[in-house]
C-alpha cells in the first residue's frame, strides 16, 4: 500500500498523516515524532503552507515550533500558482529535505497548485528516497492518490455529499478524511468507500496521527482515534441512488484504533498494539503465572474492594435521603 523502495534501491520514508489541531504547546508528541524521524537536530525541514489562507503566519508558526524542537535548518515554501511551483529554485528547497511538512487549510488549493509540478515531483522523489512527509488537516488529505476535495458532514452516507479529486499520490489505495470525530465525517467517508470500494477509508481525529511505515504498517499516535473502513465485503446501492438521498451501505468492516494500535495495509489486519507494559501489568502477569490459587486471590481482592465501598455509598445515600425528608417536615 505504501510506496516501497525497489530491491537494492533507497528505502522510502514514513508518512505522518495528522487529523489537524495537533498539540503545539505541551508534549507535542506528534510533532516531536516527525522531528525524530526527520533526523532530529540534523534534520532539514521544509514547511509547505500553500493550503493555508493565513499567509506567511502559518509558515512562521511551524518554523518556530520546529526550531523549538531542536531543528536548526527549517525552510518555508508557499507557492500560490503552478508557475511558482514549477520554479526550479523553489522546488530545489525540497530536493535535499529530510522532512517535509504540509500545513492545513484548503486541500484542493494545495493539490491544484502543487500536483504534477516540479515541486510536487520533488516531494514524491524525496519520499521515495527516505524523507518523511507529513501533512496536517488539508495536508493530510492531499497525501493520498485519491483525495476528499470538499463535502458536507453527517453520520448518514448520502449521494453527492462529497467530492473526490486527485491528491499528491504519496499513498495509493486509500482515501483520507481529517477532523473526523470533531466534524462528524463518518457519513461522507462511508459514501466514498461505497462509491469506490477498492479504497480503504481512513478517518483521523484531531491531535491524532496515522504514522505509515515504508512496509505499509499504520501506527496510531496522539490522543484520539484513527477510524479505518474496509469495504472489501461491501454491499451498496450507491450506483443507483439519485440526488442527495441516503445510500445503503452494508458489510463494511470498521476499525477504531486509539494510540499504540497498528494496522497492516497489505493484509488489512490488526496487529498487536505497541504499548509499554506498566509495573502493575508485570506484577499481574507474574501472579497469573503463579497458578490458580493466586488468580483466585486476585479476584477476591478485587471483589473485596468493591464490596467495601458499595455498602458505604448506600449508607450515605440513605442518610442523605433521611435528612432531606426531615428538613421538608
Any key phrases for this structure?
globular, four-stranded mixed sheet, 329 residues, 2 domains, 17 strands, Rossmann fold, 23% strand
What this model shows, in words?
This protein is an alpha/beta fold and 329 residues long. Helix content is 34%, strand content 23%. β2, α2 and β3 form a beta-alpha-beta unit. It has 2 domains: 257 residues, Rossmann fold (3-Layer(aba) Sandwich); 50 residues. About 10% of the residues have low confidence. The strands form 4 sheets. The protein has a 9-stranded mixed beta sheet with strand order 3-2-4-5-1-10-11-16-17.
Could you write a compact summary of the structure shown?
This protein has helices spanning 29-38, 56-68, 82-85, 88-92, 107-114, 118-128, 138-141, 186-195, 279-289, 292-328, and strands at 15-18, 44-48, 73-77, 99-102, 132-136, 146-151, 162-166, 174-178, 200-204, 208-212, 217-222, 225-230, 235-236, 249-250, 253-258, 262-264, 269-271. It is α/β, with parallel strands linked by helices.
Number of helices: 10
**Backbone structural class:** alpha/beta
What is the topology, as strand order, of the major beta sheet?
3-2-4-5-1-10-11-16-17
CATH topology of the largest domain: Rossmann fold
The CATH homologous superfamily of the largest domain corresponds to Class I glutamine amidotransferase (GATase) domain
Rg for CA atoms: 25 Å
Beta strand %: 15-25%
Mean pLDDT: 87
Determine the N-to-C terminus distance. 73 Å
Q: Count the E strands.
A: 17
Largest sheet: 9 strands, mixed
Q: Residue share in helices?
A: 25-40%
The gross shape turns out to be globular
**What is the succession of H and E elements?**
EHEHEHHEHHEHEEEHEEEEEEEEEHH
Amino acid at each position: 500500500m505504501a510506496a516501497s523502495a525497489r530491491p537494492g534501491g533507497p528505502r522510502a520514508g514514513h508518512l505522518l498523516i495528522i487529523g489537524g489541531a495537533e498539540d503545539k504547546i505541551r508534549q507535542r508528541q506528534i510533532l516531536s515524532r516527525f522531528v525524530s524521524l526527520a533526523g532530529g537536530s540534523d534534520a532539514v525541514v521544509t514547511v509547505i503552507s500553500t493550503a493555508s489562507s493565513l499567509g506567511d503566519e502559518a509558515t512562521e508558526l511551524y518554523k518556530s515550533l520546529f526550531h523549538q524542537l531542536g531543528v536548526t535548518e527549517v525552510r518555508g515554501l508557499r507557492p500560490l500558482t503552478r508557475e511558482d511551483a514549477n520554479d526550479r529554485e523553489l522546488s530545489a528547497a525540497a530536493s535535499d529535505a529530510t522532512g517535509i511538512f504540509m500545513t492545513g487549510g484548503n486541500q484542493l488549493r494545495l493539490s491544484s497548485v502543487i500536483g504534477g509540478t516540479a515541486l510536487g515531483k520533488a516531494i514524491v522523489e524525496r519520499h521515495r528516497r527516505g524523507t518523511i512527509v507529513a501533512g496536517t488537516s488539508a495536508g493530510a488529505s492531499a497525501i493520498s492518490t485519491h483525495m476528499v476535495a470538499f463535502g458536507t458532514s453527517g453520520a448518514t452516507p448520502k449521494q453527492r455529499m462529497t467530492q473526490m479529486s486527485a491528491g499528491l499520490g504519496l499513498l495509493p489505495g486509500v482515501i483520507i478524511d481529517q477532523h473526523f470525530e470533531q466534524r462528524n465525517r463518518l457519513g461522507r467517508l462511508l459514501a466514498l468507500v461505497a462509491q469506490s470500494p477498492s479504497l480503504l477509508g481512513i478517518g483521523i481525529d484531531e491531535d491524532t496521527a496515522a504514522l505509515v511505515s515504508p512496509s505499509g504498517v499504520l501506527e496510531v499516535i496522539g490522543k484520539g482515534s484513527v477510524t479505518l473502513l474496509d469495504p472489501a465485503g461491501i454491499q451498496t446501492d450507491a450506483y443507483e441512488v439519485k440526488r442527495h438521498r441516503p445510500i445503503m451501505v452494508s458489510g463494511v468492516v470498521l476499525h477504531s484504533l486509539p494510540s499504540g494500535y497498528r494496522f497492516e495495509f497489505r493484509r488489512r489486519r490488526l496487529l498487536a498494539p505497541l504499548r509499554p507494559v506498566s509495573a502493575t501489568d508485570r506484577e499481574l502477569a507474574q501472579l497469573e503465572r503463579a497458578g490458580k490459587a493466586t488468580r483466585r486471590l486476585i479476584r477476591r481482592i478485587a471483589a473485596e474492594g468493591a464490596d467495601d465501598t458499595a455498602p458505604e455509598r448506600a449508607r450515605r445515600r440513605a442518610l442523605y435521603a433521611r435528612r432531606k425528608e426531615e428538613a421538608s417536615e
